[in-house]
Amino acid sequence: MKKILITGAGTGLGRGTAIGLAQAGHQVIATTEIWPQVTELRGHIEEVGLQDRVTVDKLDVLDARDITAVSGWDFDTFVSNAATGDCGPLAEIPVDLVRRTFETNVFANLELTQRVIRTWVDAGTAGRVVFISSMGGMLTAFGLGPYCASKHALEAIAATLRDELAPTGITVQTINPGAYRTGFNDRIADTAFRWLDDSVHFNQTADVNARFAEILANQFDPQDMIDKMVEIIGAEHGTYRNVWPPQTEELIKQVQEAAWTRTE
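The chain above was modelled as a monomer; its predicted structure follows.
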């Protein structure tokens, strides 16, 4: 049995994975960004009879007090899942929106991870950090540049920590989901239309909307990814990189290989 802390468990893959891990017999600290999500998730946990295995608490990765509280929690596996995204064509998106995406997906998650690592090192705990990255951490897509860039940065952080932490016994893994129908991808795509202005930008809203519709048309059933995340996180050992589903792994390999011969 593992003792697992997961961030971003208020919705989507994080929520489903937290519940799935508890159903698999693990102890889970499921954290959410805001208090209403805490209340709602606690109610659901009671409804499904998992209150003995799941503790629900607030952990906003941008809140210094929330981050400080983590040092007093008991867990041996940290799942860094919290993420956000402001999107739209990278050539024109206001840079402050890109900075905001990086603040959550990169800097705040790194700060929290550093605190977890230090707590484990001081206690002699050979824990495991699991970064929930994305297929966007290994390729790019039209209009999703800010999110993809943040996940590329997270990939570099994970790989660096993997090597740095080897002497401590702390291990690192990444999980790279493909496009799953949780609503997250649709929500971050919608953020583009809060700043795009046809009278100002050369990217026109109708064209951007059509490109997003194409990208979002074929998303997978999230339960498939949840089941895979439960399997990976709950296992005693595993591979460093975990891309799912297989067709997404194959796509990433094709795109990366093509980059070596692509001309300008």
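The domain at 3-259 is CATH 3.40.50.720 (Rossmann fold).
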